[in-house]
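**User:**
My hope is that you can spare some time for a protein that puzzles me. This is the protein in question:
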Amino acid sequence: MALPLPAGAAIVPCGRSSNDAPAEEKKPCTICHLVVGGNRIIKWGLTVMTFIAIAVIVAMAIFYIVSTGNEGMMQTAKGGITAALVGFAIMLAAWLIVNTTLRIFTATIPGLTVSSTGFSFTCDTTSSAGSAQ
């Protein structure tokens, strides 16, 4: 997923009323669409946090290089890199837990398809379009 999002991008792929919206996104919202929207938010957050972690690691590496032997600055840089790596690991673990939980609890939602890798959800409302009100 790219940053920033395109102007016409929808988080939840349903319920749009604009004339330029695809026909699939004009359908009424179902729980299936909410799961897809939640998954998109999680993926976007993962992307943003990855960029932040990389930026902190690079900034602390530069800080370490600039320290030129100053023990206090070196400890600050090491602490920053450690904090960024620990935070990134916690974020990945949280993502895995939330995604696995979504996959388990959404197994019975009609029209929801989980990719073979298990980390991407799509919503097919053609079979349940009449019942989603």
